[in-house]
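User: HTH tetR-type domain-containing protein, Dactylosporangium darangshiense:
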Amino acid sequence: MTASSRSREYHAPRRVAQAAATRAAIEAAAGRLFARHGYAATTVAAIAEEAGVTPKSVYAVADKPGLLLLAVERADEGEGDAVRAVLRGYPLQRAFEEAAAAEPAVREAWRRHERRRRAELKRLVRTRAEAGRLRPGLTVGRATDTLWALVTWHTAALLVEQRGWSRAKLGEWFDQLVETLLAGE
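Assistant: Predicted structure for HTH tetR-type domain-containing protein:
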């Protein structure tokens, strides 16, 4: 094979950067719309319009359930703490649970998310128990289950949307809840 008959490797860094920016815009738009309108009311066409692309470009990234999973993954990336992510990002969590009820492709991801959230709460409770900061008679399992049931997007939505709490007040509430519930203070 001669040098002239070999195909050259295609290298277009500007095109790669543009594709990455388009993908990021689509993922961000999907996250905003799912959080604002919920899963059922958000369409691929609306995501495309919000991102300034065509629906075909959106589908090149993912289908609707895949876009939700990407938005959730993106939201979780900036959060080291799944519990605080639920409190801060509850509108997207609401859409995530809504989609899990309707989309088999999302259902298992929601279950994994809930297992992770419970595991993080259990770590928090265990740390407190090991430091002797757990109320006498309260087991790690019972404390974990109680926090897991109370610290959900549902609670966050009630406090923010119905009672007008700020996200900062919600965080303070969580800290106080942990102290009161686990230490009995």
